[in-house]
Amino acid sequence: MKLPYIRRARHLAALAEWEERLAKAKLRQAELAEKLKVLTETRGRELDHTRALSKLCESLKAEVAELRQREADADPLQFTLLDRVAAARAGQFQKPTTPIPVVLCVDVEPDAREVDLADPSWRGTDVFLEKWPALMATLVEKSGAASVPLTWFPRADPQIEKSNGSAGFALQRYTQHWEAAQAAGDEIGLHMHGWRWQEETGQWSQDHGDSAWMEHCLRSAIGEYRAHFGKTPPVYRGGDHYLDDTVLRVLREEGIPLDMTLELLPTMQRLVEVEHGTGSLPDCSGAPAYAYRPCVEDFRVPAPGQSDGLGILPLTPFQGGSLCLWAPNHRVDEALEFIIQQKPAPSHLAFAVRSNIADTGYWPCFVENMLSLARRVKEGSLRFTTASQAWQLAMAEKEDASCP
Ligand SMILES: [Zn+2]
Fold first, then answer.
1. Ligand 1 centre and the CA of 193: distance in Å?
2. How far is the CA of 330 from the centre of ligand 1 (A)?
3. Number of domains present in the structure of the chain
């Protein structure tokens, strides 16, 4: 008779166990429901966020498109206004008796001064070469000149060798451009910096203080130029306006007839203070601003009565520095006005830019300043020339002036 009680007891135990499991399952279900609720809410917020972001992107895109359109509309308007100002001004001053030669120098070099060995980029030069033909066409139209020759100064020194694997890297990379440029009447000179890689510190240093190193940089770069172009560079430009009597001795020995490094600046340790280097940049503030042949003993002094040998075409000085084509246009325009009317008239004007200017925010200023030059070519005050042409014209003018 005990059997039913045993069964009942077991049945109750099983029932209790199931009830416990059911309670746990309910608890678990409630937990899951809560999690699902939180997830749904988060997802909802994310969706709202995504929708808001894409709306913002759309409105920004529309804004950029509108700004681009305004920029495209504004440039021609601005240039037309500047043309009118120039035309109104043209009758109010005396033009030089003969147009003054203008030399436009482009230093063709890596984007960075202290080149990153992991990314020795020349993108700026690529961009310049892309943009220049359209700008030149505008300048030809505005100036009425047959062409706007540039004097290019590619680098081929030890920094290029270390960074790009070959000192002749730029000569080879842009070889088609050099051929086309020369055929179109441009001139190809040589640019050189004395950067030296310091293995111990993993940094670049400009070793101006080591004349043997500077001579090595210069002679090896000239060698690269000769190997590529089969001739001696017709003109040289030192980096950071570094010039001294050793550099000029080497230029003379190598048969380079013209230098365009000189800027009428006071002495300074380095052009960019935070960079590394040795030596200093010599004081050239008292050097002539006109085309001249320098003394062997001191390049800042003209050699008296000398009618041949190496010449110097200084960059155009203005107010204790050099007039830069990346400065704001109103300043450059005013400076040009002043310089052109000087008596006696300058032997030439000369400006230099780095090739990466086309890939910087300075490009619009450069374009406006080039247009200022073009307007003065149109009115007969200036003429675009290469470095060698400017030198020949300046020397011919000097001879004319000294004739009775
Ligand atoms: Zn340079």
1. 6
2. 26
3. 1
pLDDT score for 305 = 84
Please check whether residue 209 is in contact with residue 242, taking contact to mean a CB–CB distance below 8 angstroms: no
Gap from CA of 359 to ligand 1 centroid (Å): 16
Helix (H) or strand (E) holding 316: none
Rg (CA), the chain: 35
CA of 319 to the centre of ligand 1 (A): 22
Q: Residue 152: which residues within 8 A CB-CB, separation 6 or more? A: 105, 106, 108, 178, 181, 186, 187, 188, 189
Strand, helix or coil for residue 400? helix
Q: What's the gap in Å between 305 CA and the centre of ligand 1?
A: 33
pLDDT of res. 404: 42
Q: CATH number for the domain including 352?
A: 3.20.20.510
Cα of 385 vs centre of ligand 1, distance in Å, is 21
Confidence (pLDDT) at 71: 63
Domain that holds residue 270: 100-402
Residue 258 lies in a domain: yes
Say how far apart CA 239 and CA 307 lie, in whole Å: 28
- Interval between CA 356 and ligand 1 midpoint (Å): 11
Cα 28 to ligand 1 centre (Å): 73
Strand partners for 12: none
Residue 261 lies in a domain: yes
- Whether residue 383 is contained in a domain is answered as yes
Which H helix or E strand runs over 157?
Answer: none
Question: What is the reported pTM?
Answer: 0.80
Beta bridge partners of 196: 205
| Winning range, highest mean pLDDT, from 5-14, 86-95, 301-310 | 301-310
Q: How far is the CA of 72 from the centre of ligand 1 (A)?
A: 32
Q: What percent of the residues of the chain are helix, what percent strand, and what percent coil, each to the nearest 5?
A: 50, 15, 35
**DSSP summary character for residue 285:** T
How high does pLDDT run on average in the chain? 91
